[in-house]
Amino acid sequence: MATKWKNSLLLIASVILCLGGWLLTTVSYNRQMFTEGDRNYDEYVMRDAIYTEYFLKNDLATDKEDITKEQIEMYRTRYGEWEPS
Questions:
Q1: Residue 28: C-alpha distances to residues 18, 24, 31, 52, 85 (Å)
Q2: What pLDDT digit, counting tens, does each position of 14-31 carry?
Q3: Rounded distance, CA 30 to CA 22, Å?
Q4: Quick one: which H or E segment has residue 23?
Q5: Rounded Cα gap, residues 18 and 13, in angstroms
């Protein structure tokens, strides 16, 4: 009879430890994802604003550039020639 109680207590203790470990892992993961998610979003917004400002300044500052034959050849080499369907 004592062996049955020991086995059931051991089973209950192991289930409690497993559930506790799962709970701690879940809480830790969610906390990490929440804080990193905010930081990644802020970095994305800042990076997007910097790129937008950079490209707007460059687009407004320069006039249209002429396309050279070398650029056309590089394009054709990379993407192939256009063929109508």
A1: 15, 6, 5, 36, 56
A2: 999 999 999 999 998 888
A3: 12
A4: helix 2-61
A5: 9
